[in-house]
User: What shape does this take?
Amino acid sequence: MEKRIIVKGKLIKYRINKSLWAKNMRISVSCDAGVVLTLPRSISEKIAEEFLLQKIGWVLKKIRYFKDFEKIKYSKKDYLKNKETARKMIEEKILSFNKIYDFRFKRIAIRNQKTRWGSCSKDGNLNFNYKIIHLPEELQNYIIIHELCHLEEFNHSKKFWKLVERFFPDYKRARRNLRKIIL
Ligand SMILES: [Zn+2]
Assistant: This one.
């Protein structure tokens, strides 16, 4: 069911999801800025609303983030502006993740691609879309770990996902969230 509250002059719509399994109250904001409040059955909606109000700063921040993300207009200018920042961020993350994996690779290239976030070539080159600079950090990490693991497993086999899982236990959720973001 959809509920509404007004906070600081802003109308916030949210859905309540009563769960048999939830032990605690939980709030999530998805990429389309939808707010879902998950509750154990025993919690009343009044208490749930108070909980939402306590966390409202975080909720507003998330909503703003995803709305801003939608507004990004990719352009050559945006690419040139962010390319080197993206490179630095990606290289740092790769070095830190690869301390554990210890895979060999040749070079890292940053591109302005229309259809993919990253790729890995058979001869060990890693390519990343500069646009990942605009993603939440969780998704940046997921994309980087995903491509890094292709250095070892050049497919999407069970073995591959086991490698990803080592650093990213919640990869399924990240994968789902990433699909919702249109490049
Ligand atoms: Zn892949």
